[in-house]
Design brief:
Layout (H helix, E strand, L loop, with lengths): L1 H14 L2 H19 L18 H17 L9 H17 L5 E7 L2 E10 L8 E7 L9 H17 L9 E7 L13 H12 L2 E7 L29 E5 L4 H14 L4 E5 L12 H5 L5 E5 L21 H19 L1
Length: 341
């Protein structure tokens, strides 16, 4: 049976040789699409043991623990408004301690007044575009939200510290703490990043945006990492890396940020672009900017694809790997300096 079908197939090719060309072109197009979009090559960048933790990273990991504990030890969202307000005030106190000017974007959600909190690094200039780095500070439902999203908030606070006094040459850098990323606000008019994105694109030319997502859960054991199809066919199943991802419009931004991060920081990374129908690609605040035509990416440990406590009451501060979070935070600082200067 098999031999007969092969013979029939060869006879078809002989009668229609253009079919060979079409097959070759289709394979070439598929290979080109894979290289051009997802994934970023080489796959992981750094491999092998991580370098020893520096004294700076040790001190940073302690501050990151303090931030995550302060912001994400209990549920904080519009279901728990007092805790949400406490998280907002903590962020504001940290920025005020650094001497930074705070701006607030207030609006009403679920019958309550809530706010985005943002600060600028550098000064506006004629023809100078804006670049945004953000993280949301609310948690999901009953989850304390240590990884989702205390880690992103903590890293952004420390990014503000590390960049304090910095004057980017090419961009105005805005650091934004978004409210209401989680359900029931995600993708609606009461999502904090939706409110901010609509406001800022009317006032400024936004060149790009980075969302710091869940970036604190890691394991060196095989079998700890999963992926949405078909990405699991490409990557290993060990949850020891972070990922830089966006939709096709952000292809250049993925390459620029990931390339910079790898040049300055020894840590396993993956990255690339995929269309929004791939599960998880647009599950963060970068989607609000992407919807308005702004190239936007998220940096993430992949959340539910490795973290068993995702959106659960067990997502508590002691689950976080603060040593690796510190290394990533410093890497993001060095990366941001390069891409906005």
């Amino acid at each position: 049976m098999l031999a007969r079908r092969l013979t029939e197939g060869w006879s078809l090719v002989r009668r229609n040789p253009t079919s060979i060309v079409l097959v070759v072109l289709a394979l070439f197009a598929a290979a080109f699409g894979t290289i051009r979009y997802f994934p970023y090559w080489p796959l992981y960048g750094h491999s092998g043991p991580l370098p020893p933790e520096t004294a700076e990273e040790t001190a940073l990991s302690k501050r990151l623990l303090e931030h995550v504990t302060a912001v994400a030890s209990s549920p904080h969202n519009t279901y728990h408004p007092d805790a949400l307000e406490a998280a907002a005030r903590y962020i504001e106190r940290q920025l005020e301690t650094l001497g930074l000017t705070i701006e607030r974007q207030e609006f009403v959600a679920a019958g309550q007044k809530v706010r985005n909190i943002h600060t600028a690094v550098g000064k506006p200039g004629a023809g100078k575009p804006t670049f945004i780095v953000g993280a949301h500070y609310d948690s999901d439902g009953i989850a304390p939200g240590a990884n989702d999203k205390g880690t992103g908030v903590a890293a952004l606070i420390e990014l503000a510290r590390g960049l304090n006094g910095y004057q980017p040459k090419r961009h105005l850098l805005r650091l934004v703490f978004f409210v209401n990323e989680e359900m029931p606000h995600f993708g609606t008019d009461t999502m904090g990043s939706v409110q901010f994105a609509r406001m800022i694109v009317q006032k400024e030319t936004v060149r790009g945006m980075i969302s710091l997502e869940t970036i604190g859960a890691f394991s060196d054991k095989p079998g700890t990492q999963t992926f949405p199809m078909p990405l699991g066919l490409v990557y290993r199943d060990t949850a020891d890396f972070i990922s830089f991802v966006g939709t096709p419009r952000a292809r250049w931004l993925v390459h620029e940020t990931l390339g910079s991060f790898r040049r300055h920081t020894q840590f396993p990374t993956i990255g690339g672009v995929a269309h929004a129908f791939i599960k998880g690609i647009t599950w963060s605040d970068h989607a609000s900017f992407d919807d308005l035509g702004v190239p936007a990416i998220m940096i993430t440990d992949t959340a539910l694809f490795r973290y068993p406590h995702y959106h659960k009451a067990t997502d508590t501060p002691e689950k976080i790997d603060y040593g690796r979070l510190a290394r990533i935070t410093k890497g993001i600082e060095r990366m941001v300096r390069e891409i906005v200067d």
